[in-house]
């Protein structure tokens, strides 16, 4: 397996793990994950990753988890007054990396027509349209999200999101994103 593709899959795993159970991960492991994700995102190109996946026959069957990465809840409101500022800053940086990784993954997987059809079938297109509005404009994730929305608008007919989905996108942090997710819970 190509080293770049292996690093990509590690980043996908790290982001999903960090977004679901960060408190259970030892600090030293979080630092290693942060370092690996940061290095990967600084040097990786999603089109190259897609080419490697295509060459090796990798396909995705869902994009729900990747969209959820972009809408993960911010933990900053859950800290007590006694929590050291360094811990809060470290966790905020990890959250930002998970979000950027989520957008990177979506940039990669949505290059495929099949995955774009999955996006439509899972009723997640509106979340992609809303994504740049959800992200802080001074982040790399925001720039990536704008590029992704622009790319998708060239490949499929994007409609303005419904008011319901606009509200869901704003409130989606930690909530189920699709009816299939709701049935699973």
Q: Any chance you could write out the topology, listing elements then pairs?
A:
Elements: H1 3-20, H2 27-43, H3 46-56, H4 64-70, H5 85-109, H6 113-121, H7 125-134, H8 140-155, H9 163-171, H10 179-184
Provide structural commentary.
- This protein has helices at 3-20, 27-43, 46-56, 64-70, 85-109, 113-121, 125-134, 140-155, 163-171, 179-184.
- It is an all-alpha fold and 185 residues long.
- It has a domain at 3-123.
- The longest helix has 25 residues, at 85-109.
- The chain is globular.
- Mean pLDDT is 83; it is low at 173-185.
Beta fraction of the residues? under 5%
Distance between the termini: 35 Å
SS content category: mainly alpha
Give the overall shape.
Answer: globular
- Order of helices and strands, N to C? HHHHHHHHHH
Question: Characteristics of this structure?
Answer:
single chain, 185 residues, mainly alpha, 10 helices, 69% helix
Summary?
This protein has 185 residues and is mainly alpha-helical.
């Amino acid at each position: 397996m190509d080293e770049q593709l292996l690093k990509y899959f590690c980043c996908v795993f790290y982001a999903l793990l960090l977004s679901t159970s960060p408190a259970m991960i030892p600090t030293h492991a979080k630092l290693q994950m942060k370092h690996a994700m940061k290095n990967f995102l600084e040097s990786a190109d999603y089109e190259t990753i897609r080419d490697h996946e295509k060459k090796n026959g990798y396909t995705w069957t869902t994009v729900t988890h990747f969209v959820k990465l972009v809408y993960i809840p911010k933990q900053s409101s859950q800290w007590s007054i006694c929590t050291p500022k360094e811990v809060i800053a470290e966790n905020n940086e990890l959250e930002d990396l998970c979000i950027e990784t989520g957008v990177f993954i979506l940039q990669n997987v949505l290059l495929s027509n099949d995955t774009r059809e999955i996006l439509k079938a899972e009723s997640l297109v509106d979340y992609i349209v809303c994504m740049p509005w959800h992200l802080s404009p001074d982040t790399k994730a925001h720039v990536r999200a704008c590029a992704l929305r622009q790319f998708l608008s060239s490949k499929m007919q994007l409609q303005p999101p419904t008011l319901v989905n606009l509200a869901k996108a704003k409130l989606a942090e930690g909530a189920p994103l699709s009816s299939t997710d709701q049935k699973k819970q």
